[in-house]
Specification:
Layout: H1 2-45, H2 58-97, E1 102-108, E2 115-120, E3 124-125, E4 132-136, H3 143-147, E5 151-157, E6 160-175, E7 178-184, H4 191-199, H5 215-222, E8 228-233, H6 239-253, E9 263-267, H7 270-276, H8 279-282, E10 289-292, H9 293-301, E11 306-307, H10 310-319, H11 326-336, H12 339-352, E12 362-364, E13 367-370, H13 372-380, H14 388-410, H15 414-421, H16 425-437, H17 444-469, H18 476-485, H19 495-507, E14 510-511, H20 513-527, E15 537-540, H21 548-557, E16 562-567, E17 591-596, E18 598-599, H22 604-610, E19 621-622, E20 631-635, H23 638-654, E21 659-664, H24 667-677, E22 684-685, E23 696-701, E24 710-715, H25 729-736, E25 739-748
Parallel strand pairs: 2-4, 8-16, 8-17, 9-10, 9-15, 11-14, 15-16, 18-19, 20-25, 21-23, 21-24, 22-23, 24-25
Antiparallel strand pairs: 1-2, 1-6, 3-4, 5-6, 6-7, 12-13
Helix pairs in contact: 1-2, 5-6, 11-19, 12-20, 13-14, 14-17, 15-17, 16-17
Bound molecules: adenosine-5'-triphosphate.
C-alpha cells in the first residue's frame, strides 16, 4: 500500500511537471503567435505599399509581377505559420487536460535500463526539444502497448524490428490534470478501464477509443500492406471505431503525402455520418470526406431522374408482401445486383461497338443542327478497333471543329444584330472593356459589334459545346431501355415482368434503386470512366449492404484507392444482400481478411440473448460486463403494448438512462407508434432525412439505427407477424444489438421465433 502511494505521488508529480512544460510551451507559442498575427495584419495592410507598381515597359511589368508574387508568398507563409501554431496550441490545451493514458517500461535488447514510454493522443517533447515526454499513440513504439502484455515483446520500425522486454504496463485515468485512476495491466488492455468506458452512458456522437484499443483492432488500425483490408466483425466489435482510428493512423503515418481530402468514408446514412464526424477532430485531425452511396448516386444522376432511395426499397420489401408484383420485384432486385447482370451489360457494350448506339440530336435555336443519324454515321466511320469512349472523343472533336465554322457564319446573320439591340447595359459595358484590351488598331465601334455578335452566338451554343466537350453524345436512357428489351442469355424466369416494371418507372422519371448502379455502369462503359483520382483511401462501412455489382462500380470510380471494407453478414438487411453474395464475402485479389468475434457494446446478458438469433452466434464472445437480463413481454392489444412501453420508458429514465430508442420495423410503423406514444410521453420521431439526434427518447425504424447505439432499446413490436420471415431475421438482430445496457421487447401476440425460448 505504502509503495502504491509512493507510485501514485510520483505519477501525480510527473503530471504536474508535464503541466509546467505545457504551460511554458504555450506561453512561448502565444508570444510567437502574437508576433505572427501582427505580422499578418501588417502585411495585409501594407501589402500594396511594399510593392512597386510600374507598368510602363515590359521589363517593369515583369518586375511588378515578381514583387507582387513575393509579397503574396510572404503573406501565405506567415498565414500558414499562424495556422500551424494555432493547431499546436489546440493540441497542447488538449494534452493539458489529459496528457496520456498509458505507459510501458521497455527494456530494449542491448540497452542499459528500461525506458519509460508514456503514450497520449499526441506527442510532447521536453523544454529543450530533446526527449519525448509523451509519445503519440500512432508512433511505432506505441504499438507495444496495444500488442503485448508484460514480457518479451517487439515492434516494427521503418528500419526493422526492435526486440526487448516489457517490464511494466500501466494505464491512467487523468481528468482535469488530476490522476483519477491507475492500473497495472496484464494480458488485455485494462479490463478495468474498458469496463469503465463501456459502462458509461451512450453518446450522441461516437468517441475515440485510443486508450483502450484491443490487440485485434490494432491490427486493423495499423495495417499498411493490403490493397483491400476486409473486416468481418460481429455487432459491437468496434469495426467503425477501428475504421476511424485507422484513418487517424494513416494521416499520421503518411502525413507528408496524405491529407484528409484523400480519404473518404461511405457510410450507411446521414445520421451515421454526423454520429462519427467528431472522432477525427477529437484526435486532432481534420475530418475525412464523408458520403453515402445514395448521395453518390444522386450526384451522378443530376436533375434528369429522381433516384429511388434505398430506404424506400427496404420499406417496400418489408411491407408490400401482399402486392401481386412483390415476388417479381424481389427477383428483379436480386438479379440486377448480381455479377450476372453486369455480364449482360458487358455483352451489350461489346455488341454496341459495331452497331446499335443511339445518339442525341442537337438543336440550335429550335432548328436541327446535328441529327442523331448524322452523329451515328460519323461515330461508326471510325475504326472499330478504337474503343467506344475514344471514338466518342474523335466524334466530338470533329463536331466541335464544325461548330466553330458554323458559329462564324451564324454571327453574320440578322437575328444576331436584332438580339444585340436587346442586350443589357452590362453586356455593352463588358464589350467596351474588352475592346479597350485589344491592341489592334480597329475602329472601336466595329470591335464592339464584333465582340457582341460573338458573345450572342456563343451563348446559344454554350450547352451544345459543354455536352460535346463532356462526350455526352449518347442517349443513355434510350440505350438502357433497348438493353432491357433485347435478347439475353438465361436470366430470371419473370424477366419480362421485371423489365416492364423498370420501364414504367423510367417513364415516370424514376430510377429504381436496383437499376441506378447498372445504369451508371453502362454510361461509364460507353462514355469512359469518370475516375476519382484524388481519393487514395476508401472506407466502406456496413459493407454487407453493397452488392458485388456496386463494388465493381466503386472500384472503377476509385481506381487508385486502397480500401478498408467493414461489415457483418448478420446485419445484411437489403433484399439483395440477405443470403446472397455481397462485397463482404467477395474474393478480392490482394485482400487480407480480419475477423472480429468479441462484442464490446452490449452487456454480457444482451450478447448472450441476441447471439441466439443468428446462425453461428455461439462464436460471438461477450465482453465481461454485467447488466440486467433482456425481457420479452407478450400482450394482446395495442393499448397494453403502448402502456407497457410507456411504463418501461419511465423506469429506464428513472434509472438514469439518457438515450432510449424505441425501434420499429419500418417508417410506417414508427409513424404509427409515434402518433400513439407522443400523446403521453416526450418522444421524438427520426426519419431518413434526420441527420443528428439528441439525448432523450426516440422512435426510429431499425434500418436507421444501423451503426448507432443507445443506453436502452425497446423493440416496439417483436411479434411473429412482424419478424417471422427469414428475410426479417437480420433486421431484428440489428435492432436488438443496438442496446448497450438494457434491452426490452414487446410483442403484440406471439413473439418472434428468432427469440430463443431456452
Ligand atoms: N477497444 C475499445 N475500447 C473502448 N470501447 C470500444 C472498443 N471497441 C469498441 N468499443 C465500443 O463498442 C461500441 C461498438 O463499437 P462500434 O460501433 O465501432 O462497433 P461496430 O462493430 O461498428 O458495431 P455494429 O456493426 O454493431 O454497428 C462503441 O461504443 C465503441 O466505443
Amino acid at each position: 500500500m505504502e509503495q502504491r502511494n509512493e507510485e501514485w505521488k510520483r505519477e501525480q508529480s510527473r503530471i504536474e511537471m508535464i503541466q509546467q512544460v505545457i504551460k511554458a510551451k504555450l506561453e512561448k507559442l502565444q508570444e510567437h503567435m502574437g508576433g505572427l498575427k501582427e505580422g499578418v495584419i501588417e502585411l495585409r495592410r501594407d501589402f500594396w505599399k511594399d510593392v512597386t507598381i510600374n507598368l510602363d515597359h515590359p521589363d517593369d511589368v515583369i518586375e511588378t509581377f515578381t514583387s507582387i508574387k513575393q509579397q503574396a508568398e510572404l503573406l501565405a507563409e506567415q498565414e500558414r505559420n499562424h495556422r500551424q501554431s494555432y493547431q499546436k496550441v489546440q493540441q497542447l490545451l488538449r494534452l493539458n487536460q489529459s496528457p496520456y493514458f498509458g505507459r510501458i517500461d521497455f527494456q530494449e535488447e542491448g540497452e542499459q535500463g528500461a525506458e519509460q514510454i508514456y503514450i497520449g493522443i499526441t506527442s510532447l517533447m521536453d523544454q529543450e526539444d530533446e526527449d519525448f515526454l509523451i509519445f503519440d499513440w500512432r508512433a511505432p513504439i506505441s504499438s507495444l502497448y496495444y500488442d503485448h502484455s508484460p514480457g518479451p515483446a517487439s515492434y516494427l520500425t521503418p528500419s526493422g524490428e526492435i526486440k526487448g522486454n516489457i517490464e511494466l504496463k500501466r494505464q491512467y485515468i487523468i481528468k482535469g490534470s488530476k490522476l483519477k485512476g491507475m492500473f497495472d495491466t496484464g494480458v488485455t488492455i485494462g479490463d478495468q478501464l474498458l469496463q469503465e468506458v463501456l459502462g458509461g452512458t451512450a453518446n450522441t456522437q461516437m468517441k475515440s477509443i485510443v486508450a483502450t484499443i484491443q490487440r485485434e483492432q490494432n491490427h486493423i488500425i495499423r495495417n499498411e500492406k493490403s490493397r483491400y483490408l476486409v473486416v468481418q466483425g460481429v455487432a459491437g466489435s468496434g469495426k467503425t471505431s477501428a475504421a476511424l482510428q485507422r484513418a487517424a493512423y494513416l494521416l499520421y503515418r503518411y502525413r507528408h503525402t496524405l491529407t484528409s481530402e484523400n480519404i473518404m468514408l461511405f457510410s450507411p446514412n446521414p445520421l451515421f455520418n454526423s454520429y462519427v464526424a467528431t472522432v477525427l477532430p477529437e484526435l486532432g485531425e481534420d475530418n475525412m470526406v464523408q458520403t453515402t452511396y445514395q448521395q453518390y448516386l444522386i450526384s451522378r444522376f443530376g436533375k434528369g431522374f429522381s433516384v429511388e432511395d434505398s430506404y424506400s426499397q427496404i420499406e417496400y420489401t418489408l411491407t408490400a408482401m401482399d402486392e401481386p408484383e412483390y415476388k417479381q420485384r424481389l427477383e428483379g432486385i436480386r438479379f440486377k445486383t448480381s455479377v450476372a447482370y453486369k455480364e449482360w451489360i458487358d455483352d451489350y457494350v461489346a455488341k454496341l461497338s459495331t452497331k446499335g448506339l443511339k445518339f442525341k440530336s442537337f438543336y440550335f435555336r429550335g432548328e436541327l443542327l446535328y441529327s442523331s443519324e448524322e452523329i451515328h454515321d460519323l461515330f461508326y466511320s471510325f475504326d472499330t478497333d478504337i474503343s467506344i469512349p475514344n471514338r466518342l472523343k474523335l466524334t466530338s472533336e470533329k463536331l466541335l471543329k464544325d461548330l466553330s465554322t458554323f458559329a462564324k457564319i451564324e454571327r453574320e446573320k440578322d437575328w444576331v444584330l436584332e438580339e444585340a439591340e436587346l442586350l443589357d447595359k452590362e453586356d455593352y459595358l463588358e464589350a467596351f472593356h474588352q475592346t479597350q484590351k485589344q491592341e489592334e488598331d480597329f475602329d472601336d465601334m466595329e470591335q464592339e459589334e464584333r465582340f457582341l455578335k460573338k458573345r450572342i452566338v456563343s451563348k446559344h451554343l454554350k450547352s451544345i459545346r459543354r455536352q460535346l466537350k463532356g462526350l455526352q453524345l449518347l442517349n443513355i436512357e434510350a440505350l438502357y431501355r433497348i438493353f432491357l428489351l433485347s435478347e439475353h442469355v438465361a436470366g430470371p424466369k419473370d424477366w419480362p415482368e421485371i423489365y416492364e416494371y423498370t420501364i414504367k418507372q423510367i417513364d415516370n422519371r424514376v430510377i429504381p434503386y436496383e437499376d441506378a448502379t447498372p445504369y451508371l455502369y453502362l454510361q461509364d462503359q460507353l462514355e469512359g470512366r469518370k475516375a476519382n483520382t484524388l481519393i487514395r483511401h476508401l472506407f466502406i462501412d456496413e459493407a454487407q449492404d453493397y452488392s458485388p455489382f456496386q463494388f465493381e462500380f466503386l472500384r472503377q470510380q476509385f481506381p487508385n484507392s486502397k480500401m478498408t471494407i467493414l461489415g457483418d453478414m448478420n446485419q445484411a438487411i437489403y433484399a439483395h444482400s440477405i443470403h446472397a453474395p455481397t462485397l463482404l464475402n467477395a474474393e478480392l485479389e490482394g485482400e487480407e481478411k480480419i475477423v472480429l468475434t468479441k462484442s464490446y457494446r452490449s452487456t454480457k446478458q444482451i450478447v448472450e440473448f441476441t447471439r441466439k438469433m443468428i446462425a453461428g452466434g455461439e462464436l460471438i464472445e461477450p465482453f465481461n460486463r454485467n447488466g440486467e437480463e433482456p425481457t420479452v413481454t407478450e400482450v394482446d392489444n395495442f393499448e397494453a403494448l403502448h402502456k407497457g412501453i410507456m411504463d418501461r420508458v419511465e423506469t429506464l429514465q428513472k434509472k438514469g438512462h439518457e438515450t432510449i430508442a424505441i425501434i420499429c420495423k419500418t417508417a410506417v410503423e414508427s409513424q404509427q407508434a409515434y402518433e400513439q406514444l407522443n400523446k403521453q410521453i416526450d418522444v421524438r420521431l427520426m426519419k431518413k432525412e434526420t441527420n443528428a439526434y439528441e439525448k432523450g427518447t426516440i422512435i426510429l425504424p431499425a434500418y436507421l439505427a444501423k451503426g448507432i447505439e443507445f443506453d436502452a432499446v425497446i423493440v416496439y413490436n417483436a411479434s411473429e407477424q412482424q419478424y417471422g420471415r427469414e428475410m426479417e431475421r437480420n433486421l431484428f438482430y440489428t435492432a436488438c444489438t443496438r442496446a448497450m445496457h438494457e434491452l426490452h421487447l414487446y410483442s403484440l401476440g406471439i413473439c418472434s421465433p428468432f427469440i430463443s425460448k431456452e
